[in-house]
UniProtKB/TrEMBL annotation:
<feature type="transmembrane region" description="Helical">
    <location>
        <begin position="340"/>
        <end position="357"/>
    </location>
</feature>
<feature type="transmembrane region" description="Helical">
    <location>
        <begin position="130"/>
        <end position="149"/>
    </location>
</feature>
<dbReference type="InterPro" id="IPR016570">
    <property type="entry name" value="UCP010361"/>
</dbReference>
<feature type="transmembrane region" description="Helical">
    <location>
        <begin position="378"/>
        <end position="401"/>
    </location>
</feature>
<feature type="transmembrane region" description="Helical">
    <location>
        <begin position="21"/>
        <end position="42"/>
    </location>
</feature>
<keyword id="KW-0812">Transmembrane</keyword>
<feature type="transmembrane region" description="Helical">
    <location>
        <begin position="201"/>
        <end position="229"/>
    </location>
</feature>
<feature type="transmembrane region" description="Helical">
    <location>
        <begin position="102"/>
        <end position="123"/>
    </location>
</feature>
<feature type="transmembrane region" description="Helical">
    <location>
        <begin position="413"/>
        <end position="437"/>
    </location>
</feature>
<protein>
    <submittedName>
        <fullName>Putative membrane protein</fullName>
    </submittedName>
</protein>
<keyword id="KW-1133">Transmembrane helix</keyword>
<keyword id="KW-0472">Membrane</keyword>
<feature type="transmembrane region" description="Helical">
    <location>
        <begin position="249"/>
        <end position="272"/>
    </location>
</feature>
<feature type="transmembrane region" description="Helical">
    <location>
        <begin position="169"/>
        <end position="189"/>
    </location>
</feature>
<feature type="transmembrane region" description="Helical">
    <location>
        <begin position="314"/>
        <end position="334"/>
    </location>
</feature>
Length: 460
């Protein structure tokens, strides 16, 4: 048996992740989150009604109000245009036109998100009802994230429960379920039982399900597999006499891939053209104002140049892949120093690369990053700066669209540029900051789950 490591001293007072929350404290954390989610719904509901046209679209002047009052949401906006208002089951009967327009119930999201979208529309006839039903479906996922982060990182989970992005984006799009999958994977891997390999495989299943919601949790399968390959925390889960656990790493990849295939297969068989159209839509998407990425804001005036869009279809994914490789290699360097492959840190760094370099950077993607501010002990300055930059962008982008001014004109335009480029610069800095950060999850393991109580040299 290995000796129990001494508990690390509390670094942040009441924010100390090593203190597990009681049931009452977790319930309080969820209550705070519920109030924040209610504020988020009220913020978006300002755009609904008071009247509705024959398609159930809010009137008067829905689009102008959504932009100028900064209460726009994709949920309400997509009520008309994707056959959601007609209650068409997604993917089965549709496809994509030559001009890139989707039809026949196809939505531009993976299948589990499409299923949630359909469920939210089943019993309603207006965009207001659709927003309300979608909020009711997704709110439990937001509460679950709060509970799980509280279990993993203590009161630091207030960064989720009280965050401005939760007000701005909780019901902007269908992102709470995918965030829940990613956080649940971390919970299962580090709190799921006594068998390290089984925990990792179960976590991989959740990441595969997350892929079927919004793709990005699929990125975390590779660092999780490397974590298992190197024997987990301190190498304690390596099979006897082995330096690496190849079988365990392959099981992780297979579990994630199998889950993603099982989620997609029924839709692919029922309507391959419609199912494939959702992927084709994102692949063929131009770099334009709707993508809101550095590739658009850094190339304004060149977007219509011949060959630009084709070049972006290569440059963006290649740049992302290089950032993923750099994160994984850096994780290996950290593992050599500490004895543990930092899969959570590497996952956070890979997400930074994705957010920065992908040709689409929707405002609500900040929700994807928030849990890593809880799970990793990065400096508070990074967190505050990112949330401020995101707040500037999240409000000003819609106000600017409503004002239709030049990008150099007025306070709104300047706030937008501060938000866009401020976030980009912070993502560059957060990449190494995440890689070098201590995990609040590991701190709790060392204080509440002694290594001596865990199986050693046995992956199960």
């Amino acid at each position: 048996m290995r000796e129990q490591l001494p508990a690390e001293p509390a670094a942040d007072g009441p924010w100390n992740a090593g203190r597990r929350l009681t049931f009452a404290a977790l319930a309080l954390l969820c209550l705070i989150t519920a109030l924040t989610l209610a504020a988020g719904y009220a913020n978006k509901a300002r755009c609904t009604g008071p009247e509705f046209n024959e398609w159930g679209r809010s009137e008067p002047a829905y689009q102008e109000r959504a932009y100028t009052e900064a209460c726009y949401s994709d949920i309400q906006n997509l009520w008309v245009g994707r056959d959601i208002d007609r209650h068409v089951f997604p993917y089965v009967h549709g496809g994509i036109d030559e001009d890139g327009s989707l039809y026949g119930g196809v939505v531009e999201y993976p299948v589990l998100s499409g299923l949630l979208i359909w469920l939210g529309a089943v019993f309603v006839d207006t965009d207001a009802g659709f927003l309300a039903a979608s909020a009711l479906i997704m709110a439990p996922f937001g509460l679950a994230v709060a509970w799980w982060l509280g279990r993993l990182s203590g009161w630091r989970a207030l960064l989720w429960a009280l965050s401005p992005p939760l007000v701005l984006y909780a019901f902007h799009n269908w992102d709470l379920p995918v965030v829940a999958c990613a956080v649940a994977a971390v919970l299962v891997v580090h709190r799921g039982g006594t068998c390290p390999r089984r925990r990792a495989v179960q976590g991989a299943v959740l990441l595969g399900a997350g892929f079927a919601f919004k793709i990005y949790p699929g990125l975390f399968v590779l660092p999780l597999a490397l974590f298992v390959l190197t024997g987990g925390r301190d190498g304690a889960a390596l099979p006897a006499g082995k330096r690496v656990d190849v079988r365990g790493a392959l099981a992780v990849v297979a579990a994630a891939a199998g889950t993603a295939v099982l989620a997609n297969l029924p839709f692919a068989l029922a309507g391959f053209r419609g199912w494939w159209a959702s992927f084709q839509f994102q692949s063929d998407r131009d770099v334009d104002l709707s993508t809101n990425s550095i590739w658009y804001w850094g190339s304004r005036g060149f977007a219509d140049v011949d060959g630009f869009q084709e070049a972006m279809s290569v440059v963006s994914p290649v740049a992302m892949l290089l950032s993923f490789a750099a994160a994984c290699l850096a994780g290996r360097w950290v593992q050599r120093r500490t004895g543990t492959y930092p899969w959570i840190q590497v996952s956070a760094a890979m997400l930074c690369g994705f957010l920065l370099l992908h040709k689409v950077h929707s405002p609500q993607y900040t929700l994807w990053l928030l849990p890593f501010f809880v799970l990793l002990r990065v400096r508070w300055g990074w967190i505050a700066a990112y949330l401020l930059a995101d707040l500037a962008m999240g409000i000003s982008i819609f106000r600017w669209l409503g004002e239709s001014n030049g990008i150099g004109d007025g306070f709104t335009a300047q706030a937008l540029m501060i938000g866009v480029w401020g976030r980009a610069a912070l993502l560059v800095g957060l990449f190494p900051a995440f890689l070098g950060a201590r995990s609040t999850v590991d701190e709790d393991e060392r204080t509440a789950a002694p290594i001596a109580d865990q199986p050693t040299r046995s992956p199960c």
